[in-house]
Amino acid sequence: MFQHITTPQPLKTSQAVSWRTLRLFFMYRLVLALGMWFAFFSRFNPFLLGHTFPKLFTATIIIYFCLLVIGALLLIWRTPSAESQVQIAVYIDIIIITMVMHVSGGVTTGLGLLIAISITLGSLLTGGRMALHYAALASLSVLAEQLYAESFDLFSTNVSSYTQAGLLGVTFFAVALLAYGLARQLRETEQLAQQRGLDLANLAQVNEYIIQHMNTGVLVVDQSWKIRLLNDTAWRLLGCMHAKVGDNLRKHWPELARQAVLWLQDLPGSLETFPVQSGGKELRPQFIPLGQKQQVGGLLIFLEDSVRVLEQAQQIKLASLGRLTASIAHEIRNPLGAISHAGQLLKESPSIHQSEQRLIEIIRSNSLRVNNIIESVLQLSRRSRAHPEYIELDFCVEQFVEEFCRSRMLSPQCFQIQIVAPIVKIQVDVRQLTQVLENLCDNALKYGNTSTELPHIKLHGGRLQGFALPILEIIDNGPGIATENIRQIFEPFFTTGNKGTGLGLYIAKELCEINQIDIEYITTSDSRGCFRLSFHHWKLHEVFES
């Protein structure tokens, strides 16, 4: 089911970026510590690093290394948060670099500029929120070091030293303000990128949902005929339940691959319908190249059930015809009632000869048949909208069989119910589904059973292996429908009997479409007739037990 993508995913990505940049900040600090250590113990020390207080410099660097080790452990454990670790790291750098500056000769050494680098990086990593705070703390630290050095006359301080300390403080605030502006711009860019990413993710999910729920089959193959996309409709239309993304198209559907090759080569014979093994369907493909036709990078294939397309066109015609027929039925009903009533009075007349009773019986039976047709037509015109509800498939079938046997005076032994586990709940209008089953079972009793045997109807279904949807099959023990009549059985007024109205299966199909149930006629392996219902809206029984 489609679910809207919310903000936790972008936040998770943002946190991952924060930890990654924190690792880079840690690597800079480690390189800085190693560089000062190497410069102090090497012969080449152009800055005379730590020459004023060598022992204190050594202790400072050792403390810095220990703090870096602790920082590495906190970075691995990811506690506290990335922002808190950045703040701690900047505080440590301000103190340590101020100490290094002090033991190396004071503010005149220029080492205070290293604090500006830490302020800049720390401000960027914290989104600029702590920039001025870092600058103020660094300025106070440098000024305190200068006052301490002058109080104890540690260096040859003069007025220019205070000027340098002041300029260094101004530099701290300048880089802090620049870092704040840059961090703000980066934050806005990141938020925009996150929103765009969220929109793209939602759009991709909407597209996937639409493709998966299209009534048209969608199939995408690459240059090597490997399947890259296969929506549910194509999977159901093509009828190969073992096919999956990554398989070769020629392995499962060689006829479709052949037509694709013919289309690529502009040869005759492409874009024709081809039969599939499941359900006797005939599919019409439409090929769209991915890339230029001279250098096709793949194919987008749309599949449509040609029978379904014809049925949709027929439904449009039948909709207007139905309204006209309903009006005619209303007009016929009144004179038909008068004819039937007159025939009944004529039958009761004592002056009617016995030989004429047969004619009266013909009037009565045909009036009854016309009335049944009118009732069916009016039932179609008055058809109400579906009111779906979830109901267990096995319970619905058992309840139907019980009521059907009671109303038709049949023995329950005429039915065999086999609903396999796991039990599913289907979302249907129970009243309309019952009417569908009544029409199918009435047909099974009328046409699907021989007069020499006890009527027998098998109701078999459930969540069966090899089927994408739960099904229910109504199987009789008759010879089945003739092959030449299969395409017409769901058409209105089509019947092979002299007493039928030809509207039972048509009404059943209409009610199935309202409830989004696929109905098709197939022949079983033992040549028995079978109507199969496939339910699109269903859930496993366990979902409703909480």
Summarize the structure in words.
This protein has 546 residues and is α+β, with helices and mostly antiparallel strands. It has 4 domains: 8-204, no CATH class; 217-306, PAS domain (Beta-Lactamase), CATH 3.30.450.20; 309-381, Helix Hairpins (Orthogonal Bundle), CATH 1.10.287; 389-544, Histidine kinase-like ATPase, C-terminal domain (Heat Shock Protein 90, 2-Layer Sandwich). It contains 14 helices and 13 strands. A 5-stranded antiparallel beta sheet has the order 2-1-5-4-3. A hairpin with a 6-residue loop joins strand 3 (274-275) and strand 4. Helix 1 (8-41) runs antiparallel to helix 2, helix 3 packs antiparallel against helix 4 and helix 13 runs antiparallel to helix 14. The protein is rod-shaped and about 150 Å long. The model is unreliable at 1-8 (pLDDT under 50).
